[in-house]
Amino acid sequence: MYGLTGISKGADSTRRRGAPAATLVALALVVLLIALAGRAAALAEELRPDVTVRAADSTLTGAEYRAAYGYTTDESADVYITGWQVNGGSYGSNAPARALDGDFSTFWETNTPNSDDFANAFTLTFSSVATVDRVLYRVRTDGQAGRGYPLALTVYASADEEGETFERVGYAESALTRSAVVFGLPRTVECRRLRLEFTEAYSDLAGDAYAYASAAEILPLRPEESAIGELRGLFADYTYTSFVSGTEEARVRELVSETTATPAYGISAEVRFLAERALSVLEGETVFDDARELSTADSAELPRRGSIAGYARNTLKTVWMGTDRIATGVTASPGEVLTVFVDAPEGDPLPSVVFTQHIGHWSSWKGGSTALSRGINFVTVPNLYKDGWSTPTVPGGPVYLTDPYTDDEQSANVRVYIDGGHTFPLYRAGGDVRAFEDALYAYAEEMAQTELPDVAEVQSDNVLLTLSATGVRAFVERGGDVRHTCSAWDSYLKKLYAFDGIAMSPGGAHYDERAPYLNVNIRLMQPYGAAYAYGDHVGIQSSWEGTALDATEFGWGYTHELGHMMDIPERTVGEYTNNMWSQYDRVTREGQPARGDFAAFTLRMTPDDNARNAYSKKDNFAVPWWHAESYRPGFWGAFDNNYRYEDRAGITNATELHVYFASLAAGVDLGYYFERMGFYYGNANAPFTTDGASEAYKTAVSAALAAGRITDDRPKLWYLGADAYAFTVSHAGAGALYDESDAAASPAVVRNGSDNVVIVTDGSDDERHLGYEVLRAGADGAEVIGFTYGRTYTDANAPADAIYCVRAYDRFLNASGMSAQASAQTREVAVTGGTAYSTLAEAVANADAGGMITLTADTYEAGITIDKNVTVHSDGAKIYGISGDSVFIVGESGALTLSGSLTLDGMGEARSAALVRTSGTVTIGSGVTITGGNNSAAGGGVNVAKGSLVIASGGSVTGNVAANGGGIAATGGGNCSVVVAGSVTDNTASGSGGGIYANGYVNVDGGYVTDNAAGGSGGGLYLYGGAVTSFRGAGVTGNTAGGSGGGIYADGKTDFSGNATMITGNVAASGGGMYVASSSQSRAVTLTLARLSGNSAEKGGQLYVGGVMSAGGALTVTGEKTETGGSVYVADARTLTVTGGLTLTGSVSLPSGGLAFPEDLTDVTADVRVLPRISAAGDFTVATFAGSADTRAVKAKAWDGTRERACSLSEDGKRLYVAVITLATDSGATMLPTDGNGMTLPELPAAEGKRALGWRAESGELLLPGDDAGGVSALFTAEYALEYTLIFGDRGSFTLIEGESVAAPSPSDPDFLGWAPEGSDESYDGTVVLTADLAALADDSRTIRFRELRAAPPSDDNAPDPDDSGDPDALPLWPFMIGGALAVIVVGGAIIVILGLRKQRNDRR
Question: Which long-range contacts (CB under 8 A, 24 or more apart) does 344-348 make?
Fold first, then answer.
């Protein structure tokens, strides 16, 4: 036991003896670690920029300032530069003295470039001790401006006149500038020598090996007077709009006084600004305006998306699309000096400012870009205004920023504040639309008082609209919403971009993160046509402003100009290729056929012996390229992408490159197509031919064929019509209708005269069928002579022995086999005066006046002129109208009667005229049918320009199609009339008037207008322009309209008589049965002797009163009780006057005073639910009465969407009304009907940051939700209190309104003294009451933060000595071993850091 004890003590003694040694080792390692860490920190500090860099304004570069504050070589000064030294020599005559001569046109340039182990330095020696806090540097201004600029600059100073005794002062990093800058030292230095080391120099040549230092001027500057610096330091932030906390007014005024006495005040604009700004802030004249600040932290303000213009021009190669301008919401006048403040970390690239003239001239509306520097920038607004412009405007316009940097290039800490100018209404997508609308009205008041540009802007991701504040305000007042404007423009433009092959989402070919933000500026400008595209904007006139804001129907015009913006210069055909975007928009968004003379293009391209002139005629609206797009949707985008990204395969000829890239885009060798049309590009001397193409072109095409990129198929693209694209897209994947194994049926060939032959095909009802290619046999085989989309083709130059065959094509351009051949047959078709004729036209020409022509066989004709009185009779034979003109053209002296069992069938052949066109008299007898008309203009069956049309009972106009007036169009005003005793049925108009479209006299006398359809208004009849119409026992049923008036649209004097007219089963958006649009009493509609029922519409199921009318006299209107007027909808400012004899049931939607009744109500029965459209506070009038009313005849109840309210009668018995409760909130007023039973007040709408208190009555009483509002008209205003958040450190937060209290958290800690709010020393303990004074301490988010107050810790002289370890057993060896190991690891890491920092510094050199 003893031995063990002794050994134990011995070992313990050894451990104690070893402990001091281990301690010394550990301490040594710690000392080494501290030394190395210090060196690493020092190197890091050397590389941290601490020298500020800002642009030097004209003040600092001026001679006065340089003389007052600069150190020059002038020996008369107290301290001057006596010598200079450069370590890299001089290049040629560009000696160092040239950087000190005060002449900015000369410069010094080193003779030795920077390298890894050499940095150019420029050392200055002073006559005595110089005090320096800044250095002015001017970039050279010769042809190599910017060369040698110190991208990284290290400044050293020495107190000695000689020797290497320099100490580092600071380090700067900055972006290249081509003007003067001021390097601000981190501290003021007193020195005899100053050295500027060009640690990294800019080179405009290739490679760092050419980084030669250079300077036009180097000027050390002495500090300005201390008062200036102190005054500058009193401002709280970069905008100079407030002082730091605790600033005393007296001290500010004292410093201003001292500053104004300095030389700098008389010289420096910045110093004068400081003094003036300080006084302005003191007087409360200058306050921070959030609308004037833009920050990179907010993507709506400075989005950091890179250069959109650069992407558009350089990558997408668009000629003008894309702008980097960012709206600021500030406008400025010529000559005005704006103060622009910039706050940004050193090294961040900075925005530039651009000035414009509102409604300026296309060539001079925009000034140059002015680069901004950190700190204060004084920028003078250029004059871009000129007298004599045709559109009046005010000098000046919006100010913009450009900031073409990405978030990788620029931090989120760049802020710009614009002082001066005037703010104007600007809406940024996603912003506060209510605040924008308020700004519009406020700006209108300002414009009335001050001369300001009438401007407002709307900016989204893809559009910047620069419009008039007046126009935008009018848009808002008519219910417009700029949020829709933004989203609609973005959607519209993104579709156009996608059409052009620009990928809009990641994963798309060639996707670029800037693509979703490709934008355009639409702006009001001086006239240059209705609109134009130039530079980076589309200029418009005020007439286009509404369309820009509505953003629903952009139309051909806007898209045409945008096409100009997106055109690629090297493949542009001016005013043609830009129409590709218009075609796309028209076809896909508007749902219309493509625009252009497709027929003319097809006519020129089709014959095998064509003149190769289809392209040169230029009447095509981009038809050649649209044919390729229709065949292969996506062609245009692929075509443009080829110009952007595809290898050119050695092709240098612009025409050949166009054809080659088009072939790659279509997947077909299109050489044959371009050759057939005679295509050439630009000023080419000759059209393209495959044989005459260059070897480079032929080789490229052969390679593409071999690689399978294109095929050698030859689809006849010119057969594709104006509607081909829509069909190809909607029927993608549909099978072919034809192939060569199935021959087309042989045609019938009829000779109509010696040279005129009509080829009649079988036709096809299959929607895939396109048309027929017509061939004429000759000595060398059959040649293509034409193509028809219908059933007939006329060969106007037919040889006597002509033989024909046809080939059918489907919409995918697959062809059938050739039909059997057929020769022309001559036959008799009509007889008059005992003589037979081979054509009806011949029979008409030879008939006597008043004569009868009998049709004996079917005939195929068109263009028959009637200039006398004739009757055409048939017992079953038909007249088929071939394509082209009208079948009958009746002159003013002509009269045509059609009788018997005669059918005039247009076969659906496309034409630009009605089947019958008359300026004389036309009678359609019983048993006669006019059908199959297909007119691109007005009147599918009949067009009455003058004269009269009578449809006898049993006669019909049915199954015709037109733009307006699917069945009949009467467009001659008072010179034409239509009488319908027969029927007008199943006709269709893409526009208005499915059955009849008329502005003349119309009499529907026992006839029927049924089952017609109109894409616009007037499904049955569209009566416009003062048409005079009468209905007598007629039927208007089953018609539909996409717009107004399912049965009848009436804007003209209209009356009903005889037996009741039935208006039933019609459908429209407004006025299912009838829509009254008459604008004056002379055009008033008198609705009597009619029954309206079973019709439907969103507004006014039976009747919509949008004009002047009266109702009564055996009139029955029966509708449903719907919320939008199942029976009648009376438009705002309109009144439905009841003349008696009315039965009205269902619901009536009314503005105030919408029904007016006569004194005698004995034959009036009204049992309706009234739907008040309340627009003003006070009683809502349901009806007015001429005399004391018999209210039993008028049963009406108002409905508020929840329940019906009883109407009240005025004391004089002449007014039926409902009381209105008006609920006013921040977002507007809601008006609800009430009655004598009162109404329960609803909950208040939620308001962010506010607590609802209740509804304040006009009497001052505060009512709560659930209280009774009473039964009389009254106004209640929503009342709220602001909520504040009180945060007590990390111990809890509470939400209060003024006057409420909360128990503050109370930690069980003897050192806790209480809570103090930030910005105040007042202490709170226990209950905290939110007073007005406490609320005033809240920040912008109405948050009040409290900090804990604690007692200071007591002093304890008896604390144990940290060096006294106490028990020697407390010093085991293992902690020192671990500590030593850790120290080694850390030391090694520090050495690595030092080496890395040294390399980084060398790299910067």
Answer: 344/374, 344/411, 344/413, 344/414, 344/415, 345/411, 345/413, 345/414, 346/49, 346/52, 346/53, 346/172, 346/173, 346/174, 346/374, 347/49, 347/173, 347/174, 347/175, 348/410, 348/411, 348/413, 348/414
The dihedrals phi and psi of 637, each to the nearest 5 degrees, come to -65, -40
- pLDDT for 595: 92
How much helix, strand and coil, in percent to the nearest 5, is found in the chain? 25, 35, 45
Tokens representing 650?
């050695």
Q: Which among 521, 558, 556, 526 is positioned nearest to 541, based on CA atoms? A: 526
Q: Residue 748 pLDDT > 60, yes or no?
A: yes
As a whole number, mean pLDDT of residues 1149-1178 equals: 69
Q: Are 704 and 751 in contact (CB under 8 A)?
A: no
Return the closest-CA partner of residue 981 out of 918, 1037, 929, 1032. Answer: 1032
Angle between helix 433-449 and 469-477 (nearest 10) = 130
Return the sign of the alpha-carbon dihedral for residues 953, 1078, 917, 788.
negative
* pLDDT at position 24 over 80: no
Contact 1198, 1207 (CB under 8 A): yes
Q: Distance from CA of residue 776 to its chain's centroid?
A: 54
Size of the chain, expressed as the number of residues it contains: 1405
Cα(421)–Cα(426) distance, integer angstroms: 15
H helix or E strand, kind and range, residue 1197: strand 1194-1199
User: How many Å apart are CA 1047 and CA 134, to the nearest integer?
Assistant: 85
Q: Are 1018 and 1010 in contact (CB under 8 A)?
A: no
Contact 739, 773 (CB under 8 A): no
SS (H, E, C) 1139-1170: EEEEEEEEEEEECCCCEEECCCCCCEEEEEEE
Q: Cβ neighbours of residue 1382 under 8 Å, at least 6 residues apart?
A: none
Q: Would you state the structure tokens that stand for residue 21, as one six-digit string?
A: 């040694």
Written as six digits, the tokens of 926 are: 């019983």
Q: How many CA atoms lie within 13 A of 367 on its CB side?
A: 27
* Burial tier of 1277 (Cβ tally within 10 Å: 0-12, 13-18, 19+): middle
CA pair distance 943, 888, nearest whole angstrom: 11
pLDDT in tens, 76-123: 999 999 999 999 999 999 999 999 999 999 999 999 999 989 999 999
Question: What's the Cα-to-Cα distance from 78 to each of 73, 125, 134, 189, 1221, rounded to whole Å?
Answer: 11, 14, 18, 17, 85
Edge-to-edge strand order for the sheet containing 337-343? 293-295, 415-419, 337-343, 375-380
What is residue 909's three-state secondary structure?
coil
Alpha carbon of residue 1371 to chain centroid: 76
Strand 830-832 relative to strand 942-944: parallel, antiparallel, unpaired?
unpaired
In this structure, the strands spanning 366-371 and 352-356 are: antiparallel
Instruction: Give the three-state DSSP class for 448.
Output: helix
CA 1327 to centroid of chain Cα atoms: 54
Alpha-carbon distances of 553 from 456, 492, 543, 1191, rounded to whole Å: 21, 10, 14, 48
